[in-house]
Amino acid sequence: MAFKNDIQATRFTAASTVAVIAQPVRLRGLIVSSSGGGTGRVTLTTTTKLGDTLLDLDIPTGDVVNFSFPEDGILFPKGVFCSTLTSVASVVVLTDKYSGPNLTSDNSSG
């Protein structure tokens, strides 16, 4: 039987120079709600708001996107930052639990 990881949900509503999640973490999925003001866009980076882009999504107007990443998800080695959040009401990132003990710098799925 495969080991199951705990998941943590973190919600944010604006792009910022401050990390959404400051620790190294694996993104397992996300839920994005459109604000209805046109095609939305979400860009997630690591290191800083201007760091390497690891995820760039377009969100259809008036839609809610729920996406689960296959396999081990996307590793954000220096934390998760949001550089672009346009026409989006909110984003919930689903990650490996990062507030518990025994997490490593790569948050491998064990």
How far is the first residue's CA from the last residue's CA?
Answer: 13 Å
The topology string of helices and strands comes to EEEEEEEE
Helix coverage percent: under 10%
Number of strands: 8
Which blocks of ≥5 consecutive residues have pLDDT under 50?
Answer: 105-110
Give the overall shape: globular
The biggest sheet, with number of strands, parallel, antiparallel or mixed sense and barrel status, is:
5 strands, antiparallel
- Provide the structure class: mainly beta
The oligomeric state is single chain
Whole-number tally of structural domains: 1
What descriptors fit this protein?
disordered C terminus; five-stranded antiparallel sheet; 110 residues; mainly beta; 8 strands; Jelly Rolls
Sequence-ordered SSE layout with sheet pairings:
Layout: E1 7-12, E2 25-34, E3 40-46, E4 52-59, E5 64-68, E6 74-76, E7 81-86, E8 88-96
Antiparallel strand pairs: 1-8, 2-5, 2-6, 2-8, 3-4, 3-7
